[in-house]
Design brief:
The complex is a heterotrimer of chains A (380), B (264) and C (300). Chain A has 380 residues and is α+β, with helices and mostly antiparallel strands. Chain A has helices at 61-69, 111-121, 126-139, 155-167, 185-202, 213-219, 237-242, 247-252; strands spanning 23-32, 35-45, 50-54, 76-81, 84-85, 96-99, 173-177, 205-210, 222-227, 230-235, 257-266, 270-275, 278-284, 295-300, 306-308, 317-328, 332-339, 344-350, 365-370, 375-378. In chain B, 79% of the residues lie in helices and 0% in strands. Classes of the chains: A alpha+beta (380), B mainly alpha (264), C mainly alpha (300). Chain A binds chain B through residues 69-71, 90-92, 96-98, 100-102, 104, 106-108, 117-118, 121-122, 148-149, 151-152, 165-166, 169, and chain B through 157, 159-160, 162-171, 174, 178, 181-182, 261, 264.
């Protein structure tokens, strides 16, 4: 049975019916006056997962995180952690720690004191405390900076202190609010892998809030894409990318081409729709096919299209058009093609060769072809 | 990029000359040989000598310092509480009245505040003296402290307090261990402001003070009515010297701390 | 539970203090303003005591009247004092603005290194005594004072100018003493202003002066407003300056109140003066409070 995406998954507790969720949101709503930030949301997260809440600003992801940390109480519904209800439990009593977007390092304390703060609150003895702080400093590679104050550190260093402080108490659950937002690109990439390694090493459950889809895709076991207070889709990165359940999700992650049409026919694996560019066959999402005559949308990713100058033979789908725009990105080339119907679609090609005979130019007529399984027919 | 034009430089210099010239002249004439404060007759420190013999002035100074220390400290506590109430509790019963009561004394003419407080003390039969002046000073100073602390509290990053709570600190402790240390410079500024206001006040003290509790401004004022003498200049110069030294020390300490930070 | 109590206490403690020491006294002033002058200590009647029965209290309440207010309205001294105070305060405020704005503007435009020093220099006189600074002007403005000496020596005038004990000296005194109150709010508003706004205006065709009027001055309005109210309102009720620098012809209501209370021992009329002064100032005071509240919300 072919799987979505190119990686074999070894860790997938959500598929195991016997597994009990570690975090459980049950019909949680949060309203601020007239504004509904989170709307009747239910979600299960399993132990040792690296889980991302992804969405644009205002979609409610930060509110959800804050409810888990205890800084907001749900207006309706209940949140469970390891089977226990968190209703009425104040933040300082929850076995959850949070890494703040602004890092929130205490400016009047040194790095070591910052990290030790939570341990002191727990009443840990000085010698044990010092040992743990030293461990944490080693973990984030900041051993020489123990006595420095936060304003003497760079952005990347501050981020690591915030991480060390949040992890020092060995919480079972770590919440991270846009942890990589303030870092530059190179640092961000490095830190992404560091965070993943850290999580594996310590065996913790991580829950991250981000608006950066690349970040979510790189680090997560599963992603929840949110839209205006509800969850649009939960799944592994491959599921979200290759099997979005709506145009919203398809459009949110990566680039996608959407072609509209009316359903002509369907079987148990594929759906045919008829639109401005003729008939297109796409994969069926789910088990129930849409009715004939209904409006549906064909969604296909740019990299799934093949480009050729002449009409291709023996293909499931082919459309013709004119090269409208070319963007050379070095590792790949992106072409915007204006089809005869007027729709503009994007195709991308990996530049496998350094030298190319007869490259594509502007205003050339070309054909784009794709198999029936390379795109999805979406009903919404 | 800010550029300082000639007009800017001139206006700043004219402004500061206007501000400082009278003070400078005052200081100079405190060293005047003769009794006049308008004709220079030679350098002499005799007025300072006379000043230290003047028991009534020394007593008044002692009263003033004690009143200022106590009222500044109590006003700082109350003012900080008021600031926290205004910033952290956006909705509570009677908030509008509370806000009004905190801001009104900032601009209220002192004769009104002084008169009203005196009438209060009379109505409850509270003998006028050291404590009535102190209570009066606490009342109007606390509003200034509240405004200073409030403006710092508003720009304070709440996530610091949340982080403390997240790491296990109950809310009150989080305020004491994290928020208060960080806003402390503003609280100190508030204290210094309250101290100066108390040290300086004439009108309210005149209304609310009593026998044995004459403050230094009251004493200076009564002397001034009799005629301007260099002895008064001497008192004023000493006060100016104390205040200037204090401000200079505070500025140097601040600069040194800033330099230490940037060096490491 | 403890948390809820602590929260309440934070509000209640300052609230009760202000209620008792600030608001309540005003009510007492009103009550005295409605009473009659009478020899004794305290010099007013009727006096309520805890021993009074309901009938006595009712009877005493009946003795309260607006006689004192009628007295104020009838005597031109008081009416003129109010009007004169408003006039002097108004023009002083404008003068303070004219002196203070260029100073604040110059400070805001200064290079980064100098600005903290300039700020300290503006605040320093504020730390030194208000009384002292007013007093300093006596020596300067007297007939034989330093200003006249200078002008005579320069040959600008022949006979000494009479400045002290006139309204002119009061204007100078108010501008001098309240200058930091005008400069600080304007400075803090201008300092936060983004330079590139002025550059954008000039890029779009404004002259230097035009850009100043249309951009800088407009953005400085909240600071200017705060500064003006911080000067005007207390200046109306000013006592020390007109007393030390003004003459017998200087009519200011703060001085009138003082004389009424300390020299004439007429607490009832003094109270009536205070109440009317409060009423006169209520509009600017509320304006100030709203401006403050709005400024705080904007910074949140």
């Amino acid at each position: 049975m072919p799987s979505l995406g190119s990686i074999r998954l070894s860790f997938a507790p959500w598929n195991d019916p016997a597994a009990k969720p570690y975090i459980s949101f049950k019909n949680v709503s949060k309203r601020f006056g007239d504004f509904t930030a989170v709307d009747n949301l239910s979600l299960d997260v399993y132990e040792r997962e690296f889980f991302s809440l992804l969405g644009p600003s205002g979609c409610g992801k930060t509110t959800l995180l804050r409810m888990l940390a205890g800084f907001e109480e749900p207006t309706e519904g209940e949140i469970f952690l390891d089977g226990q209800s968190l209703k009425g439990v104040p933040p300082h009593k929850r076995p959850v720690n949070m890494m703040f977007q602004s890092y929130a390092l205490f400016p009047h304390m040194s790095v070591a004191d910052n990290i030790a703060f939570g341990l002191k609150q727990d009443g840990m003895e000085k010698s044990a405390r010092d040992e743990r702080v030293a461990q944490m400093l080693k973990l984030v590679k900041l051993e020489e900076f123990a006595k420095r104050k936060p304003d003497q550190l760079s952005g990347g260093q501050r981020q690591r202190v915030a991480l060390a402080r949040a992890v020092a108490k060995r919480p079972k659950l770590l919440l991270l609010d846009e942890p990589l937002g303030a870092l530059d690109k190179k640092l961000r990439e490095e830190t992404q892998f560091e965070l993943m390694d850290l999580q594996q090493q310590l065996g913790l459950t991580f829950m991250i809030v981000t608006h950066d889809q690349e970040e979510a895709m790189t680090m997560s076991d599963r992603i929840a894409v949110m839209d205006k207070g509800i969850i649009a889709q939960i799944g592994t990165p491959a599921e979200i990318y290759e099997a979005p359940n709506s145009r919203y999700v398809a459009d949110f992650i990566g680039s996608v081409n959407i072609l509209e049409g009316k359903v002509v026919s369907a079987d148990d694996a594929h759906v045919t729709i008829n639109g401005g560019d003729g008939q297109i066959v796409g994969a069926l999402r789910g088990s129930k096919a849409p009715a004939e005559g209904e409006t549906a949308w064909f969604a296909i990713r740019p990299e799934k299209m093949s480009v050729s100058r002449s009409k291709p033979e023996n293909v499931d789908n082919a459309v013709e058009g004119e090269v409208w725009d070319i963007a050379y990105l070095g590792d790949m080339t992106i072409i915007n093609v204006k089809l005869d119907s007027g729709n503009v679609v994007q195709a991308s090609m990996i530049n496998r060769s350094r030298l190319v005979e007869d490259p594509i130019g502007y205003e050339e007529r070309i054909w784009l072809s794709f198999t029936a399984d390379s795109g999805l027919v979406l009903e919404r | 990029m800010r550029r300082w034009s000639w007009f800017n430089i001139t206006s700043v210099m004219v402004g500061f000359t206007f501000l400082y010239l009278p003070i400078v002249l005052l200081v100079i004439f405190s060293f005047n040989e003769s009794r006049l404060v308008t004709v220079w007759a030679g350098f002499s420190t005799k007025w300072y000598g006379e000043l230290f013999q003047n028991q009534s002035i020394l007593d008044a100074a002692w009263v003033t310092i004690r009143v200022a220390l106590i009222s500044a400290s109590v006003a700082t506590v109350l003012g900080t509480l008021a600031a926290v109430a205004l910033v952290r509790f956006p909705r509570f019963n009677g908030r509008t009245i509370f806000t009004g009561m905190v801001y009104a004394p900032l601009v209220m003419p002192e004769v009104i505040t002084g008169l009203s407080l005196l009438l209060l003390f009379v109505a409850i039969n509270f003998a006028r003296g050291f404590w009535t002046v102190t209570l009066a000073h606490i009342t109007f100073s606390l509003c200034f402290v509240a405004v200073v602390v409030q403006s710092r509290l508003v720009s304070f990053d709440k996530s610091l307090e949340e982080a403390a709570q997240d790491l296990g600190c109950p809310p009150f402790q989080a305020f004491m261990k994290v928020t208060l240390p960080v806003i402390f410079p503003a609280v100190i500024s508030g204290w210094m402001l309250a101290f100066t206001l108390s040290l300086d006040d004439l009108v309210i003290a005149s209304f609310t003070s009593g026998p044995g509790a004459t403050t230094l401004p009251m004493k200076i004022y009564s002397q001034v009515r009799l005629g301007v003498t260099p002895e008064i200049n001497a008192v004023c110069t000493i006060l100016i010297a104390i205040v200037t030294t204090g401000v200079l020390i505070a500025t140097i300490l601040n600069k040194r701390r800033a330099m230490q930070k940037s060096r490491s | 539970m403890l948390r809820a109590i602590t929260n309440r206490l934070v509000i209640i403690i300052p609230y009760l203090w202000l209620l008792f020491f600030f608001l309540l006294p005003f009510l007492i002033v009103l009550r005295i303003a409605l009473s009659d002058l009478e020899y004794g200590a305290p010099p007013y009647t009727p006096q309520f005591s805890l021993a009074d029965g309901w009938n006595t209290i009712w009877e005493k309440l009946g003795q309260l009247d607006f006689e004192n207010f009628g007295f104020l309205a009838g005597d031109s001294l008081y009416i003129n004092s109010y009007l004169s105070s408003l006039q002097i305060a108004f023009f002083s405020t404008i003068l303070t603005l004219l002196v203070g704005f260029p100073l604040a503007y110059g400070m805001a435009r200064a290079p980064d290194g100098i600005r903290p020093t300039l700020l300290m220099l503006v605040i320093l006189p504020f730390w030194t005594s208000f009384l002292i600074r007013v007093y300093a002007w006596i020596g300067i403005l007297k007939q034989e004072g330093l200003l006249n000496q200078l002008l005579l020596w320069l040959g600008v005038i022949d006979t000494p100018l009479e400045i002290l004990s006139t309204n002119k000296a009061v204007y100078i005194g108010i501008v001098y003493s309240y200058l930091p109150f005008m400069v600080l709010p304007i400075y803090s508003t201008l300092e936060k202003m983004d330079e590139s706004l002025v550059e954008a205006a000039r890029d779009l065709g404004c002259t230097r002066i035009g850009a100043f009027w249309k951009v800088t001055a407009r953005l400085a309005v909240p600071g200017i407003l705060a500064g003006c109210l911080l000067v005007f309102i207390p200046a109306v009720g000013e006592f020390v300056i007109p007393d030390l620098l003004g003459g017998s012809s200087t009519l200011m209501i703060g001085k009138t109140l003082w004389i009424e209370f300390f020299n004439n021992s007429d607490w009832t009329v003094a109270s009536a003066i205070a109440i009317v002064l409060l009423i006169v100032l209520v509009v600017p005071i509320v304006w100030f409070q709203n401006a403050q509240a709005r400024a705080t919300e904007a910074n949140r």
